[in-house]
Amino acid sequence: MMFAESRPGRLVRAPENFLDAEAIRAVQSGRRDFLRSALAGAAAVGAGTAGAQSADGEKVILEPQPHATSLGKPVAASPYGMPSKYESNLARRESPGLTRVSAASVSFSPLQGMFGIITASGLHFERHHQGFVEIDPAEHRLMVMGMVRAPKVYTMEALMRLPSVSRMHFIECGANTGMEWGNVAVPTVQYTHGMLSCSEFTGVRLKDVLAHCGADIRRGRFVLAEGGDGSGMTRTIPMELVESGEVMLAWGMNGEMLRPENGYPLRLVVPGVQGVSWVKWLRRIEVGDQPFGAKDEVLHYTDLMPDGTHRQYTSIQEAKSVITSPSGGQRLTATGYYTITGLAWSGRGKVARVDVSVDGGRNWKTATLQTPILSKCLTRFTLPWVWNGGEALLASRVTDSTGYVQPTMRQLRAVRGTRSIYHNNAIQNWQVAKSGEVSNVQL
Amino acid sequence: MMFAESRPGRLVRAPENFLDAEAIRAVQSGRRDFLRSALAGAAAVGAGTAGAQSADGEKVILEPQPHATSLGKPVAASPYGMPSKYESNLARRESPGLTRVSAASVSFSPLQGMFGIITASGLHFERHHQGFVEIDPAEHRLMVMGMVRAPKVYTMEALMRLPSVSRMHFIECGANTGMEWGNVAVPTVQYTHGMLSCSEFTGVRLKDVLAHCGADIRRGRFVLAEGGDGSGMTRTIPMELVESGEVMLAWGMNGEMLRPENGYPLRLVVPGVQGVSWVKWLRRIEVGDQPFGAKDEVLHYTDLMPDGTHRQYTSIQEAKSVITSPSGGQRLTATGYYTITGLAWSGRGKVARVDVSVDGGRNWKTATLQTPILSKCLTRFTLPWVWNGGEALLASRVTDSTGYVQPTMRQLRAVRGTRSIYHNNAIQNWQVAKSGEVSNVQL
Prior knowledge:
The structure is a homodimer.
Chain A lengths: L1 H4 L15 H8 L5 H12 L8 H9 L30 E2 L11 E3 L17 E2 L13 E6 L5 E4 H6 L3 E8 L16 H5 L2 E10 H7 L9 E6 L6 E5 H5 L4 E6 L2 E2 L9 E3 L12 E7 L6 H4 L4 E2 L5 E2 L8 E6 L10 E10 L5 E7 L7 E2 L1 E2 L9 E9 L4 E9 L8 H8 L12 E4 L5 E4 L2
Parallel strand pairs in A: 4-13
Antiparallel strand pairs in A: 1-2, 2-3, 4-5, 6-7, 7-10, 8-9, 8-13, 10-11, 10-12, 14-15, 16-17, 17-21, 18-19, 18-22, 20-21, 22-23, 23-24
Helix pairs in contact in A: 2-3
């Protein structure tokens, strides 16, 4: 199943002679221009490389496929399009038995088969505390109250009349990678890191709405956000974050309205902060002069430290990265060239650099970062690699724009112990066996 | 229907006293800090603004909605998520009667209801020449031949092993806005400009594949791309574009595999060039020393000039912009504050600036551009506006990073005449009547 979950095409037989000896040396010595020499070298090898098969060639030319000689499906066959039936295996999945009730559980994004930085909304991860609801936007209201001169109740129409902004940000559940604390090596990257997505969000800045209501931001240094679902989710947001202009009341995601499971018609967007604070089905904002001490910030989403105390209000997602391919559950079926690729992000700013190791952290090479590199947004990294058939230990390590370097699990446990659930941003190690099997290991 | 097509929430009654007189003067004089003063002013007005209704307030507080007191739907209720049932009206639509066969037609993206710059893949426009097909990626092959030292046939697996890049680009059909040439004022922005979408694409650079096959790029200055559908779509791509590194063989779109109607499993991505050259279901690349003179470049997608000659190989999409809201078919139901918003793009680089006029081009104000501003990608612009209830004529005008300024229809016709179908990048005018009805007019 794990094997089936991974994307076909990443796991096939390596084209013979794909790289010549010189190109391989170039890769291993990390030379920047390796690609040119690699391809030139491979090209020089001539026909028979890169899976070239004359039989297939004849098939293409002499035997036109049925779809090349027939009338296809009409436009708007689906007014709203869907992925190919051949991609049905790429889906978000619940981790069986993770919770007792599926309405209070998680479905994970299939990172192992995803590209770039944008998460297709159909694959966005889910974390519900009492299931998700479908609210009629015409009936939905947002109340703004507390330390404000003019409390208001907004219709969606009134909110959507306000000046809006669109920004790309990652959202990560504070419990993402939580199983790893206790030495439970979850098998695939979908289950280790799949409570992570990235979208373009559109909405109005909370700062502007609070100004509209005449909030007293001198004394009112905290904001409570309350959701409209059955869990009564409430979270405290520090006013500094609101004043930065980054916190949004969002209705748009990837060009269309939010999906019901992501908070339709209105959710809070708190860039860099754990997902639980991005309150869904948002119905109330209250301004106050102290943290509200809601159950989901004093009892849950806290960090149990080695001395038995609970660390509260630790909501910024520190810099983190993970290799998504090759990753646990995938299998390298031949030696030769692979692209090591993955995602990096930081709740404190931009990704400055990602280093990749294939020998368990003894040696590191700097990966290529895809652009654009945006603040509090996913960044895709890639590094060419030639697998020689031996054991390998793959890991990535991000450095963010503040200079913070992603810690090892050992470094993190030295401070945090092993009894936490939340806020694990440790380096993830994937072990490649001689058989080509990739598995999750902890060092 | 047009009214129904436009997004609810953009058309509601303006909140009374939303802006005070000073703020309105600020908007009209284009003052940059208008927003602060506007909101501060509005806030000072106190309760009763922005659609605040105490009845609604009580409803929120005293009468919890059923969804707030019940158990919702479980996670992964949809392994692949879909929009809310309340959004079913936001869909791509065929323009009835545009062509005789729906398999050789167009479905348009609903720009009037979209946010930001990313197009949700389910709403991506479609233009098929003989319908779309669903190809098994395991069966698909790409042949690279012609002036190359080592002709090859690639499996998808072999292609996806090559080094890949992810980039955000717009795609626009060369016939987008084509009806306007003949003074046919198509009613909504979905039908005037909806052959436009923007996605994050992932694939391998054609430049690298050609190097892999040892292409003779000194003599072979042209590339033929051939699609695998029944229309035998073939287009010539100049080698300069390939050498720039921008042309990709793409399999990924917005984080997942291409949709079948968008060329699954492989399409050409030619940033800045009209959509027809982004050959779908790509099965063959041929390198040659002259343009291939394919039917879809010498007979179709040519510009019939006033002197009766046909202009061929004009494939770069020049700078263009359009206001998506308020736009044709929408209705302003009250005076007061609106956000004028739209999209701008250029096939030659970045959007440098967008100016907006509310009086038919006599006066212009510079709009705010959302970031990131990327090359050959959509850019979202916004400008605050207070409608005073009189007639208004809304228009946007883009200037790109080469200094090129979007022309008026009159300027364009002076050069191109009125018998063209393709490559209309003229300024679009929307007329706001005293009734608030917005309609498409040509000046």
